[in-house]
Request: fold
Amino acid sequence: MKQEKPIKQKRKNPIPEQLQGQIYMDPKYDTAFKELFDSKEALKDFLDGVLELEGDEKIKNLSFSFDKTISMYSAQSKKVILDIFATTGSGRFLDIEMQKAEHDYLIDRAVLYKAFLIIKGKQEMDRSEEFLALPKDARKSKRYELPETISIWICDFDLPASKGEYIDEWALYNRNSLKSGNLTPIFNKNRYIMISLPNFKKSIGEVNGTMDAWLYLLNHAGDGKELPRFGNKVLGSALERIRIENANDELLTKQAKDMITQDEIDTRLAGGMIRAKAQGLAEGRAQSLSEALDILQGMNLPPEQISIFKAKLEAKQP
Reply:
């Protein structure tokens, strides 16, 4: 593969204050995350590593899109927005989420997103040329067949269910088999790969393999230090895409806005909690919650993000 050449940008504007002194944009924020994986080769390499695919099992064909909206209509219309929606030539459907903020309904959210992913995958499967070319009876026999769906959640916080490990896999098991010591899922086409970045504590010398290299990058790109390529040209090209001196003014402005928004949300919510605790009254707590929500509304955040922070604040009310 031809190595991408870094292009140092000529700037009209100074580097935003939030990014000064940094070498790379931090991919734990939305803008840099998308820039990092804005390449089929990069996304394939990351997925091959996380899914432990080797040799002929490696992903050969891949298509993907950012911020994929999937809607479902029932009594009320609902929708989710997937950070990265990807499909492979072998019929896998994947959702890759970068989750920086912790909240109390993460498992609920992961299951909800997977439900939408499964529905989308089933729709795509039933519309595929391969399916439509089957005889009518064969199509009927596959009415309930589902494609393989994989949700990958990269979390910048500890997941208690993972017991301090940096990667965990959730699947569908039955209790009686577990009692007898059989740890094989009863449905191997429904997988969740859960990654806790703070638990990935390997040093550069301890990094072993493709997955480790990508997790080290995700965990340390925001540290302000030059990162190694670990002998991986694809990872090296991805790093150059998030190198600050290679990024244009528009990209840096978007990244800085991501960082300001997140920091401001955290600060405002913390302030609201302190005031509520100091007042110690039900009406005081309600007033602080209302104040925090008014602030979030004024920041023009997506309704989904406001709901997440509302749940987080309500759960911590004294």
